[in-house]
Amino acid sequence: MASSEWTARRLAKEKFVEEHGGSNVMEVVQIASLVPMGLWLGSLLLSRWERRFGTTCSLPRLLVELTVVFLPTMLVYLNLVEPGTMFYLHVTMVLMWVTLLPRTSKVDLRPNSKHDKCDCLSAYRASMMIVSCIAILAVDFPSFPRKFAKSENYGYGLMDVGVGSFVLATALVSRIGRGETLKRRHILKSTLTKSSILFVLGIGRTLLIRQIDYQLHVGEYGVHWNFFVTQAVLSFVPLVMGPWSDSAVPLGTLLLSGHQYYLMRSGGFLNSYIHSHARTHSFIDMNKEGIYSLPGYISLYLIGAGLARMLQVTTIRWNLTRKHIQGLTLVTASLWFCFFQSERALESASRRTCNLTYVLWMLAFNFSMLLLFVFATAAARTSRIHLILGVNKHLMSVFLLANVLTGIVNLTMDTLHATREVALLVVALYTASFSLIGCYLPFSF
Predict the structure, then answer these.
(1) What is the pLDDT of residue 444?
(2) Across residues 339-347, what is the average pLDDT?
């Protein structure tokens, strides 16, 4: 392909994902809730599979799991089915099954339940990663509704929940979230190793994009900054917190309040600066989105990890009780209340600045999803969803693999002119590839 033609295609793809205003909070929740409902409905089918073929993990079993749990999300992403239609279809099926199930079939909330092999936290983390990775490629096809793409400045796009959800999923199982109080010297080596890998990936991604002239949405993180660099910085949070881990929630709240104050002071000067397209040649100015959003993401990490510590989220995986459900429900309702108050009194959510409203939205949204997965896994009729368990062990590796595959697809085909049928085929093969390979990876980081 001629250089001028390639450049024109790159610019067209960049423009295709820019300047969008998002959808609405309710629609995002509807689409996200398809997965926990699909997981429970899929468990009914998989329980029949196990009677005939056993519980062994095999390629056909993994493909069935992928289809019954995640195909509905793919269909919605590619605008083959309306989100509301798919949502109410799932709700109807759930209600039908609940009504038709024998009265003796009760949800087991006792400690060490037989369903704990596919626990709620693993299901939430793995499902969040898979649907986020599906969206990474799906957004490049014209059949992907533009309202689901990342909002440019303010808004509630479906893809806006990706980075916030990943940060929170990491925080829930962090040392702070697990309630560990190790001394700094005990975690220094592992922190430096993990952050070094992430920094190398972040720098490598930036250099590769420049080398092959790949499309880049500068409004997300900036010119050189990217998701991996943000994660590398966040990996130092447990190390820095050290003995103050018990105060994660108040410290996170204090940092978030200060972040919002500086965003809005002087008539919102910092807000206007971050959202403007003007840039100089200084490193900070070229990467203002990534740098100035860090206080918000650190706050999200601290508050999420602190709440996980308080609610004993890692304990819920193995010892689910009604007390845990009541506590999680109360916290989730409180977070939604704070979110709506913040949206009304301050400003709408902005992923670009990671403002107070965005952080509260991510907390309320993700704890809602975790609560749905609590019910879905507790009521599941099968003890294992192998795909979920495999992906959960290799979250960052799966995300890296999905990014590589997305790049390969964009380099080898013109996604902007693909039909819905072609888009569905490509996205389905792509999803199967990163999910199945992710399950069998011999390493993780």
Answers:
(1) 60
(2) 93
List pLDDT tens digits, range 272-294: 888 888 888 888 888 999 999 99
229 vs 32: CA distance, rounded Å: 26
Rounded-to-integer distance, Cα 238 and Cα 230, Å: 15
Residues 6+ apart with CB under 8 A from 311: 324, 327, 328, 331
Cβ atoms 400, 425 nearer than 8 A: no
DSSP character at residue 267: H
* The pLDDT value given to residue 98: 66
Report how far residue 124's alpha carbon sits from residue 356's, in angstroms, rounded to the nearest whole number.
Answer: 24
| Summary count for the chain: helices (H), strands (E) | 22, 0
CA atoms in the 13 A half-sphere facing the CB of 349? 28
Q: From CA 121, how far away is CA 320, in angstroms rounded?
A: 11
Q: CA torsion sign, 254 to 255 to 256 to 259? A: positive
Alpha helix (H) ranges present in 383-419?
Answer: 386-393, 395-412
Cα 384 from Cα 35, distance rounded (Å): 16
> Phi, psi (5° rounding) for residue 112?
55, 40
CA–CA distance, 377 with 76 (Å, rounded to integer): 23
| Range in 11-20, 78-87, 130-139, 168-177 the model is least confident about | 11-20
27: its two tokens = 């629609």
Opening angle at CA 405, ends 400 and 411, nearest 5: 130
What CA–CA distance (Å, rounded) separates 404 from 286? 25
Q: What are the tokens at 62? A: 């993994």
Q: What are the structure tokens assigned to 307, written together?
A: 């709440």
Q: Which of 389, 403, 391, 382 is nearest to 436 (CA)?
A: 391
pLDDT digits (tens, 9 = 90+) for 184-213: 677 788 888 888 999 999 999 989 888 887
The pTM assigned to this predicted structure is: 0.90
- In contact, 389 and 118? CB cutoff 8 Å: yes
- Residue 156 three-state SS: strand
Kindly indicate the confidence band of residue 384, based on its pLDDT and cuts at 50, 70 and 90: confident
Task: Give the C-alpha separation, 148 to 76, whole Å.
Answer: 10
Could you tell me the sign of the dihedral formed by the alpha carbons of 36, 397, 209, 193, in that order? positive
Cα-only R_g, the chain: 21
